[in-house]
Specification:
Layout: H1 2-28, E1 38-44, E2 47-56, E3 59-61, E4 66-68, E5 73-82, E6 85-100, E7 109-127, E8 132-151, E9 160-165, E10 174-182, E11 188-194, E12 205-207, E13 210-212, E14 218-228, H2 238-254
Antiparallel strand pairs: 1-5, 2-3, 2-4, 2-14, 5-6, 6-7, 7-8, 8-9, 8-10, 10-11, 11-14, 12-13
Length: 256
């Protein structure tokens, strides 16, 4: 117990020292060199290219690449506690899913997707001022809308579709690991892998006094790559912005 208390005190002291040093460095630098330690950024995942590892009834199912370009938005609260490292906590609304041909020897096509609320937490290392850094983290997700389309024999004219809010066909929450690179001008590339099954194998459908579990032997883990604008380029302090604004005003006043 004594060792545990000593470790806790040591960690707290180290944490306070890092915060104090970061604050002191920002205060001792002139306004033109100060950086913003905490700030909000916004953006989105852009177009998501997703695939999955899929097994159904013990056989491998090859999915089709899925592209979802719309309604992938979010934001992050950033804390750059030192010059070359920081952490971020965010939120996002994301459209993910998979396209498969489930029936062996047939062209029956299924398109399934969820809209989900994601809560990412990660750490970044690199040049915070220039917006060039590597980041890695984890994410909890909460699916809130499920949609399924069925094309018998691949015939789009005979398709059937439905969607459900807070559907029991998928898990109530998801877990994922992500990593990415952020470049200058707020460009961003990220890969993400979901640990949980896309489907809820225990989902039971009652149909004409009978019960079936359509996803009982269905295992699908989604991963994707995306190009987006997850982090905005707003890392200058208020004094730096004022200085730049003053320079522009002086330039205008000296123009003929």
């Amino acid at each position: 117990m004594i060792k545990l208390r000593k470790t806790s005190v040591l960690l707290n002291t180290l944490f306070l020292f890092i915060v104090f040093q970061a604050s002191a460095q920002a205060q001792t630098k002139p306004p033109s060199q100060q950086r913003q330690i905490t700030y909000w950024t916004s953006g989105g995942d852009g177009g998501i290219l997703s695939l999955a590892t899929v097994e159904m009834n013990g056989r491998e199912v090859r999915p089709i690449v899925r592209w979802s370009p719309v309604f992938n938005v979010g934001g992050n609260f950033n804390w750059d506690f030192i010059e070359n490292a920081g952490i971020f906590l965010g939120w996002n609304i994301r459209n993910i899913g998979l396209i498969t041909k489930d029936s062996a020897g047939k062209d029956d096509l299924f398109k399934r997707r969820i809209y989900m609320l994601g809560l990412p937490l990660g750490i970044k290392v690199g040049s915070m001022r220039n917006g060039q850094f590597f980041y890695v983290g984890g994410e909890f997700g909460f699916p809130f809308n499920y949609k399924e389309k069925y094309f018998p024999d691949g015939n789009r004219r005979k398709k059937t579709k439905f969607h459900e809010w807070f559907s029991e066909r998928v898990p109530q929450f998801t877990t994922a690991l992500f990593a990415g690179l952020h470049f200058r001008r707020s460009l961003n590339v990220k890969v993400q892998y979901f640990f949980n099954n896309f489907f809820n194998p225990n989902f039971t459908l009652v149909n004409q006094n009978s019960e079936i579990q359509p996803y009982q032997n269905y295992q699908a883990n989604i991963f994707f790559i995306t190009f987006g604008l997850d982090f905005g380029d707003r890392r200058s302090s208020g004094d730096e912005k004022d200085r730049r604004r003053g320079q522009r005003q002086r330039q205008r006043s000296t123009e003929p």
